[in-house]
Amino acid sequence: MLSAMLKTADITQSSFFCVPISCISSFACLKCLGVGGLYRFVWADGSSLYACEALGFPCFPSGPVFFTKTYLNLQLELGSLMTSNRLFSKAFAACGLAIAVICAHSADAASISYPDVSVPSAGVKFTDISEDSATDPTPLYGAPDGFIVGLDFDPSGFAAFSAGGGGDITDGQLNFNVETLPEVGLTSITVKENGLTVLTGTGTAATNVSAVAYIEVSITALDGIDLGAPINLPAEIVSYSADLLTDPGGSAWDLDATVGLTGHGGLVTKVEVVINNNLTAISEAASSAFIEKKEFQIVIIPENDRNEVPEPASIALLGLALCGAGLAGRRR
Q1: pLDDT tens sequence across 172-198
Q2: 3-state SS class at 17
Q3: Model pTM?
């Protein structure tokens, strides 16, 4: 976890603030609360990232957004909603510090690979399973176990905590492939996760926590034949947030997102999956914020070449229903 405190710095509209951030492979932005001014990071390739002066952390006007590219230089550019150069300085000093600390921490977070996991009941095999983090030592997800319709993880230390002002971001990336047995295809992949939050003290809605999940799937084989060029499906992004005013004390949260895999001219027999998870906690002077991931599962629904669910998976659907009940919490 990293903590980034607001700092005042002499940054003007004409300033350039260049940070070597090639070490960042993914980064999730916070949701803008619509309070105060909004400013914009502009990269050399024209990509933008926004920051809210009230938070001093990256955000985006329309909600959470992930950046999966790497960038070498960062230029600070004043956005159209600037209200105060002093606040502008504070916001971007904090954002710059956050990025610098992410880079420093990412050097310590090594990628971890796990053994392949076969799930005969669903007719699939998970291969090339690995996790990495831009902010924390790994493991965060932990080693997976197969269950009747997918993979089950028991996260450890996948949390964000902040007290007395500032914020904390925990980032975790999970990569894996899914291959099917002969005459079996994939119809969907679902990510399910849950956890708890604790918001205490005195403050405003600026004391908050959030969770974001980004799922990217590429189809690499149809009917058992590798494709020359993968079919890259639209990314699925889901998020949860809670604040001190609406959710004081402790509460449960959950997220789930499904990527459909049908309608591509054949049975989907191999896919590559990238999942980015971010937990964020932001506090004020007299408050604290905590969010933790407790459970994480990958659920698949298979089919055979007659467009029927394979017999072993008919039992799995019951397990899926029970799994959903077990992971059920409160979604926002």
Answers
A1: 999 999 999 988 999 999 999 999 999
A2: coil
A3: 0.66
